[in-house]
């Protein structure tokens, strides 16, 4: 008889279900009025006296096991039910969350910042709505200077002193006014020019300006820095500096990188020359240093400026600059795998 009870105990402890009706059936089977337990209790009077103690204890074990099991299963089912109320069906398939993509301008900008930060350049920024001093005059472009026509300017309302900056060179001026050499900074940002919009040019675009001021900075330092930069960004180290003119640098140069002429695209991009123009640069004009309270007798430096949009078009083979500001999701989605 005791063995029978023990069998029942084993059965009770291995029982499991996730159905509330089955729990109730289980309860009735063991603990109900006509249940297994009562049957055993009814046997009690027939058990020989010397076995009564063990028999009683075993029945109690069975009772305890069955009562605990019912409690446990009920609790588990109630918890599941309340979780389901809170979170819904936990086994349903997840919502596919779309992965975002960085804008190609941000991708290229971040790459440029990363490359220059590795050689000690910090990042500085300035306002897009500028005054005449920071955008022109301090950069050695006094009023009526013909070189002001190189950049067709948007003025704000009728005040000729307030304008949308035409280049990030304005940030050079602000940085020099507020910091003492040695200076090593790059300034990314959006600029505006009153130009007809086409596949190749827009009335707003993005530039990165670079500025390095210290004692004994030479043109050779400039060339080394640019060579490091083009190697890191394009994987191309062959560059050439063509003499050019900017009012804020003397001497000034235009930087071309040798792209090569291996594919038809190379041919198209470089107009058959193999060379691509990527930026302007030069040694900071002593007048500009003076305007920013830096003594040109003690310090010298170089500066450079490049267009981010053009580089993004190049690196990602984008055919029309307008795509960069149209926010067409089908275009933007294509940059998911980029950095
Ligand atoms: N500001 C010039 C432009 O927008 C680019 C430039 C050229 C910046 C030479 C410089 C520089 O700092 O040294 O066309």
UniProtKB/TrEMBL annotation:
Co-factor remark: Binds 2 magnesium ions per tetramer.
HAMAP family: Phe_tRNA_synth_alpha1
Ranges for domain Aminoacyl-transfer RNA synthetases class-II family profile: 108-325
Cross-referenced PROSITE patterns: AA_TRNA_LIGASE_II
GO biological process, one term: phenylalanyl-tRNA aminoacylation
Gene of this entry: pheS
Designated name of the protein: Phenylalanine--tRNA ligase alpha subunit
Catalytic activity: tRNA(Phe) + L-phenylalanine + ATP = L-phenylalanyl-tRNA(Phe) + AMP + diphosphate + H(+)
List of residues binding Mg(2+): 250
GO terms for MF: ATP binding; magnesium ion binding; phenylalanine-tRNA ligase activity; tRNA binding
Cofactor(s) it depends on: Mg(2+)
Enzyme Commission designation: 6.1.1.20
Family statement drawn from the similarity comment of this UniProt entry: Belongs to the class-II aminoacyl-tRNA synthetase family. Phe-tRNA synthetase alpha subunit type 1 subfamily.
Domain of life: Bacteria
A GO cellular component annotation in the UniProt record: cytoplasm
Pfam family, one: tRNA-synt_2d
Quaternary structure annotation from Swiss-Prot or TrEMBL: Tetramer of two alpha and two beta subunits.
The entry's keywords: Aminoacyl-tRNA synthetase, ATP-binding, Cytoplasm, Ligase, Magnesium, Metal-binding, Nucleotide-binding, Protein biosynthesis
First-tier enzyme category under EC: ligase
ATP-binding recorded as keyword: yes
Compartments, as annotated in UniProt: Cytoplasm
């Amino acid at each position: 008889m005791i063995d029978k009870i023990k069998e029942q105990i084993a059965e009770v402890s291995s029982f499991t279900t996730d159905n509330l009706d089955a729990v109730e059936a289980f309860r009735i089977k063991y603990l109900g009025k006509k249940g297994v337990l009562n049957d055993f209790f009814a046997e009690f009077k027939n058990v020989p006296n010397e076995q009564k103690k063990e028999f009683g204890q075993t029945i109690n074990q069975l009772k305890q096991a069955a009562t605990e099991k019912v409690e446990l299963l009920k609790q588990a089912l109630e918890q599941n039910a309340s979780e389901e109320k809170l979170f819904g069906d936990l086994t349903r398939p997840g919502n596919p969350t779309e992965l975002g993509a960085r804008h190609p301008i941000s991708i290229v900008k971040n790459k440029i910042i990363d490359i220059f930060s590795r050689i000690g350049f910090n990042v500085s920024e300035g306002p897009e709505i500028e005054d005449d001093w920071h955008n022109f005059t301090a950069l050695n472009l006094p009023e009526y200077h013909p070189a002001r026509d190189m950049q067709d300017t948007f003025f704000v309302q009728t005040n000729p002193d307030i304008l949308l900056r035409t280049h990030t060179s304005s940030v050079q001026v602000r940085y020099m006014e507020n910091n003492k050499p040695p200076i090593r900074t790059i300034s990314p940002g959006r600029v505006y020019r009153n130009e007809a919009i086409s596949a190749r040019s827009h009335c707003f675009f993005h530039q990165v300006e670079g500025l390095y001021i210290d004692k004994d900075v030479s043109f050779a330092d400039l060339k080394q820095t640019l060579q490091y930069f083009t190697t890191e960004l394009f994987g191309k180290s062959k560059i050439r500096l063509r003499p050019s003119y900017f009012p804020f640098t003397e001497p000034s140069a235009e930087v071309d990188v040798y792209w090569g002429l291996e594919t038809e695209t190379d041919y198209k991009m470089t107009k058959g020359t193999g060379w691509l123009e990527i930026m302007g640069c030069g040694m900071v004009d002593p007048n500009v240093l003076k305007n920013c309270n830096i003594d040109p007798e003690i310090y010298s430096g170089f500066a450079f400026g490049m267009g981010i949009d053009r580089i993004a078009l190049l690196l990602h083979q984008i055919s029309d600059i307008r795509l960069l500001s149209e926010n067409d999701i089908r275009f933007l989605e294509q940059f998911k795998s980029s950095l």
